[in-house]
Amino acid sequence: MTDATVDSGIAALTRLVTDPHFLRIDRLRNRANIFGIVGRTYTETWHSMILAWLLDPRGSHGMEDHAFRLLASTVAHHGRSNNRQLWYRLAALADLKHAVVSPNERSQGEKVYADGKRADVDIDDVRLMITKEKTISYKVVVEEKIRDWPTPQQLDGYATIATIPGREFVGILLAPADRIASIEPYLDASDIWSAIDFQVFHDGVLAPMLEHPELDDRSRLLLGDYIDCLRTWNKGVPTVVTDSEKELALAIYEKHKEAIRLIAKVLRAEGKEDADTPEADEDEDIDLSFHVNGTEISGATGRELMANFMAYLDKGGILKKAAESGAFPVQNGPKRFIVNKEPIHPGGKKFLTPVKAGGWYAEAHASRAQILARTLKLAKHLGLSTD
Fold it and tell me: What integer best gives the mean pLDDT of the chain?
């Protein structure tokens, strides 16, 4: 590397860190909120109380059932759900005049079921008229995950104990995307549980609520603090990115591509987990397809390519043979697995975008170029012919 190249890189980095846009986005990431100030960022009951307050048609926010309809619509449009038609109907036609939300401002205890299990948010008696002679009443439970990971056993337990005579049970899992991905097979087979991640929840529910004309200034501040908490609590990984942050980030990238690419290159070379970023604009133009043993494997996204390749390996019995021969797990450097029995990297960090097939997990959190390289590396490792 020449002195001129070094000087150019340092100059690019200096321009980046002194840009007012960069300073502003850094300030946004560290803006104070009441959750952090009082040490309740990870206190699940605080998150549940805020969520229940928003969903309570009699809540002091004054928006009546608006939040529930936004939530139902968001699940229908963007959630992982096998029950979209129901959520569409609930969004448009649900009657919440008799609904009781627990906890709420008037009774702050969580709903406790017969076996002692507590619901994060229990919405009882949401009515939906099917015909003039027939109305169905639903019990809606929202399970919110802040630090813990969901399990099928826990979700199945709600469906068993929360249902009461005269009610149909439906559940919504609200969690970070990686936690939802960890139980994808369960959700794909469930007619009861649907799931949305916090970014989708922000875009479909929280951000639109900020624009509601009946939202008073005090409630707007509380809702803003909740959004700020969601933006910052996940160990430095932004669980929620707001529109203002997106605009700033895009503006910074357009202005400082050279510096950002240099940072990404250094991170990749050092094996840092955060290095999974596109190497350049042209990354989006990379064709995610290849042939393995004469069969085309392709995907619209890197995750889809990895999922389709793993499905091919599973269907052909290749995963099973590889496990029996000791070919698995497969690493991509000292700090990362491509494939492992559990969605965990060598240092103990969980896969960010796990893809599961045949009892094995592949990590699909990477740029398009990196995913294509990893699938080809995996194919070569397994002795498969590619072109």
Answer: 84
Query: Domain limits at 336?
Result: 285-381
Whether the Cβ atoms of residue 193 and residue 162 lie closer than 8 Å to each other: no
Question: Is 301 inside a domain boundary?
Answer: yes
Let me know whether 181 and 326 are in one domain. Answer: no
pTM > 0.70: yes or no: no
Note every long-range contact of 151-155, with CB atoms under 8 Å and residues 24 or more positions apart, other chains counting.
151/183, 152/183, 152/186, 155/183, 155/186, 155/190, 155/192, 155/193
Position 235 scores a pLDDT of: 53
Answer whether residue 226 shows pLDDT above 70. yes
The pLDDT-based confidence of 277 (bands split at 50, 70, 90) is: very low
Q: Are residues 301 and 373 in the same domain?
A: yes
> Does residue 144 sit in the same domain as residue 291?
no
Q: Give the single-character DSSP code of 176.
A: -
Q: What is the 3-class SS of 304-332, one letter each residue? A: HHHHHHHHHHHHCCHHHHHHHHCCCCEEC
Q: Based on the structure, what is the number of domains in the chain? A: 2
Asked whether residue 43 falls in the same domain as residue 179, the answer is yes
Q: SS3 string of 227-240? A: HHHHHHCCCCCCCC
Identify any residues that bridge with 89 across adjacent strands, giving them in sequence order. Answer: none
370 and 379 Cβ atoms separated by less than 8 Å: no
C-alpha 150: how far from its chain's center? 13
